[in-house]
């Protein structure tokens, strides 16, 4: 069965989508079979991988609320070994609609833990979460084996981390006892900027080995890539951004092989 | 009565909080009486203005859900002429709690349009919205005269703009017929970066005069200021960031005096 990783942080704009797309692409590049689930009504992961609006007839919304078969919502992307369940703005009503369902936090887990999952042959599933600790993000945490936390090297981003850790602990205590922290990855890191260095020091001091050694530098090629509907790994394969996501992928694999 | 402006954009990390704090501070600096309402469970506006956790006993949560008097939740900040209604993570349950109230989209409006509002003497009220088009953000739009939209000079940020405009149109049609767009302000603008120039061109072509002439440059002093619990205007008064927010404030005032 595949390992399921929720990419989550309620702080906005910290690199959840960028990390989901590029870590997934880096793992696909070395032959791992990867599925992304776009759980954000903004649909940025879907857009960043070139899924046009006309291919988003069946999406994560239908998967969660209309009991559609997983097979009918999975789309291939232009990246070999990388598939996605796309999202549209319809997903923004999912929160309220799920609320009336008694099993509301277990809906996504129910879908992903279905018998036939091993038939797809995925090694890893990454869930791109919206910037909130709402029912969608809780569903992702309940459905996952671990949570990967992108941490922007900025003050406000650090401020929200303790709340995120509390929420993970609550989910572990109430709905998913095996939930672990996959790791915290520093994003948009600028080694010339004092604030970045302070945030790194602070994170490593408080979180120790939870913080990946690999850091993702601020790199304009990373932010240009989505406008070309590609991961930075194919948009500019030799950029610092692409290389840092390859490093993160090999560290991620190393941590998972050891386990 | 004060003019009420919602600072909103469902895309995360585009500069909603930074613009709320610094535009408010720039207006306060020239003698306008300003109130900020922190409507984000992250409480970043409250933190950025130095409101310690022990001063957040009564917050926006109580204002919306426990019918507490506005007077008892307004706090002064270290910035002269600038007050705030702070927020805590309690606010994250407001969405679901408001949902059962028939007047759910009108709750904040009811609080702000109360008789005694003119007694406070505020010229402007700015509402810092969370990164979502949820019930909290809708409440802000229904309560406001206009919406100020920070637009990060990045591809994903542009992608979400049409959805935001649709939502504003919907709110105008169903709950607040006078709702206008205050303007779109380009944030984290880097004139050496091609992507920024393309986003600016695209925005001015499609939105014309809705786009403020003033642009906020990416400026490290802006992102350092919150860790010192100050607006950039007091943290580094001569920085490009501080100056650009003063320019934005005078353009904002000019637009409002003409009206
Ligand atoms: N390493 C990087 N270097 C430069 N720009 C980056 C980097 N990582 C992300 N970005 C840009 O920063 C912005 C925010 O990143 P992204 O959208 O991935 O964050 P997010 O956490 O998914 O946001 P949201 O909270 O809205 O879902 C995007 O415009 C993205 O292109
Ligand atoms: N002009 C700027 N130059 C440099 N950094 C900036 C600038 N504006 C904002 N930032 C930084 O970018 C990050 C995102 O900004 P901010 O938190 O204000 O966005 P937001 O839209 O309020 O985010 P959220 O969606 O989480 O509420 C913050 O760390 C902030 O300090
Ligand atoms: Mg995202
Ligand atoms: Mg904010």
Descriptors:
homodimer, 259 residues, alpha/beta, seven-stranded mixed beta sheet, 13 helices, binds adenosine-5'-triphosphate
Q: Can you walk me through this structure?
A:
2 copies of one chain form a homodimer. Helix content of chain A is 43%, strand content 14%. Chain A is built from 13 helices and 7 strands. Chain A has a 7-stranded mixed β-sheet, with helices on both faces. The longest helix of chain A is centred in the C-terminal third of the chain and has 19 residues, at 240-258. Chains A and B meet through α2, α4, α8 and α11 of A and α2, α4, α8 and α11 of B. The complex binds adenosine-5'-triphosphate (2 copies) and magnesium ion (2 copies). One adenosine-5'-triphosphate sits between chains B (12-18, 40, 44, 131, 187-188, 216, 218-219, 222-223, 226, 241) and A (11-13, 131, 154, 156).
């Amino acid at each position: 069965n595949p390992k399921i990783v929720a990419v989550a942080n309620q702080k906005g704009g910290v690199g959840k989508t960028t990390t989901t797309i590029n870590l997934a692409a880096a793992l696909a590049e070395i032959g791992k079979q990867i599925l992304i689930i776009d759980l954000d009504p903004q649909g940025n992961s879907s857009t960043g991988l070139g899924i046009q609006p006309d291919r988003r007839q069946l999406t994560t919304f239908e998967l969660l609320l209309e009991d559609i078969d997983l097979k009918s919502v999975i789309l291939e992307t232009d990246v070999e070994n990388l598939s996605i369940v796309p999202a549209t703005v319809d997903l923004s009503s999912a929160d309220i609609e799920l609320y009336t369902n008694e099993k509301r936090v277990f809906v996504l887990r129910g879908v992903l833990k279905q018998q036939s999952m091993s038939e797809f042959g995925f090694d890893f599933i990454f869930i791109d979460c919206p910037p909130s600790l709402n029912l969608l993000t809780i569903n992702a945490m309940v459905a996952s084996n671990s949570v990967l936390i992108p941490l922007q090297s900025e003050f406000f981003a650090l401020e929200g981390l303790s709340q995120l850790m509390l929420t993970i602990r609550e989910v572990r205590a109430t709905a998913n006892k095996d939930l672990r922290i996959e790791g915290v990855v520093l994003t948009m890191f600028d080694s010339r900027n004092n604030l970045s260095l302070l945030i790194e020091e602070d994170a490593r001091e408080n979180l120790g080995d939870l913080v990946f050694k690999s850091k993702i530098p601020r790199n304009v090629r990373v932010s240009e890539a989505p406008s070309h509907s590609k991961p930075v790994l194919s948009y500019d394969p030799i950029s610092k951004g692409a290389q840092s996501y390859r490093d993160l992928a090999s560290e991620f694999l190393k941590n998972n092989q050891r386990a």
